[in-house]
Amino acid sequence: MTDDLKTGNQFEGKEEFVKDAFTEIAEYYDDMNEVMSMHMVQGWHKFMMKQAGDIRGKTCLDVGTGTGEIAFHVARTAGPGSTVIGVDITPAMLELARKKESEMDLPVKIDWREGDALALDIPDGSVNLVTSGYMLRNVTNILQAVSEMHRVLAPGGRVVVAELSKPKNPIVKIGYNLYMKRVKAYGRKRDSGKKIDGKFSPYEWLTTSIEGFPYGDDMVAIFRKAGFKDAHFFVKSMGAVNIYVGTKE
C-alpha cells in the first residue's frame, strides 16, 4: 500500500472557512444540493441505506450531518429502539436539522451534537453504522476523518459514505463540465460571489473543492489505509457521485 495518498484542496484556515461558509448558506443548502445533484440526491441516500445492512435497533452515527438529510434516512431505517447521532461542526446547520426533525414523524429522536469529524467525541467500538455525505472534501485531513470512523465502529460495523466525483467517460464529462458551470452561475445568485474569510464564495468552494479531491480507487486507498480492508465503491449517476462502503473486521 502506497503512502502517497491524495489530500484534496487544503489551505491555511480551512476549518474556520468551512464553518463560516456553511453558516452563510445553511438556509438554502438543501435547495442547492438538489440543484447540484440534478435532483438525484435522495436516490443516492436511499442507495446508501441499502448498503448499510440490517441496522434495526442499532447505534448509528452520521458524521458531517449538515441539515440532517442522511440522518433522517438512517432513523427511518434503524427504527424504534435504535440510537441515531448526527454530528456537525456548524451550529447553524444543526439548528436547521433540529427544526426539520420537529416537523417529521420519525421512529426515534436524533441526538444532534456539535463536533469535529477529526476528533469525534464517541467511544471506541460503540457504533454499528457510520454514514457521511459530501463532508470529506471539507476536512483538513481525509485519512484522519476516515480513521475516526473506523475507530468508533464496533467489529462488524459498516461505513457508508457518499462523495462527489468526476465522470471518466469523455462524452459524459463534457455534459458534466457544462452543468457545473451552470451550478456556479446559480450559486452566484445565491451568495452574490461574496468571499468568505477572503478565500472563496460558498458555492465557488462547493464546486472548486472537487478539484484535486481523491475519488474512486484513490479514495478506496484512503479507506483501506484507515483499516477498512474490504473497502469498495459504487458509481452512481454516470460518475457524478461515488458511494464508498467498508466493514470493520
Which key features would you list for this structure?
single chain; 249 residues; alpha/beta; Rossmann fold; seven-stranded mixed beta sheet; 7 strands
In a nutshell, what does this entry contain?
By secondary structure, the chain is an alpha/beta fold.
Helix content: 40-55%
How many helices does DSSP assign? 9
Task: Please give the domain count.
Answer: 1
Rough shape? globular
Main β-sheet, spatial strand arrangement = 3-2-1-4-5-7-6
What's the CATH H-level superfamily name?
Vaccinia Virus protein VP39
Q: Round the Cα radius of gyration to an integer and report it.
A: 17 Å
Query: For this structure, what is the CATH class?
Result: Alpha Beta
Query: SS-based structural class?
Result: alpha/beta
Main pleated sheet: 7 strands, mixed
Number of strands: 7
CATH-derived architecture: 3-Layer(aba) Sandwich
Percent of residues in β-strands = 15-25%
Measured distance between first and last alpha carbons: 18 Å
CATH topology: Rossmann fold
**In terms of per-residue confidence, which ranges show pLDDT below 50 for 5 or more consecutive residues?**
none
What's the pLDDT, averaged over the residues? 91
Secondary-structure element pattern, one letter each: HHHEHEHEEHEHHHEE
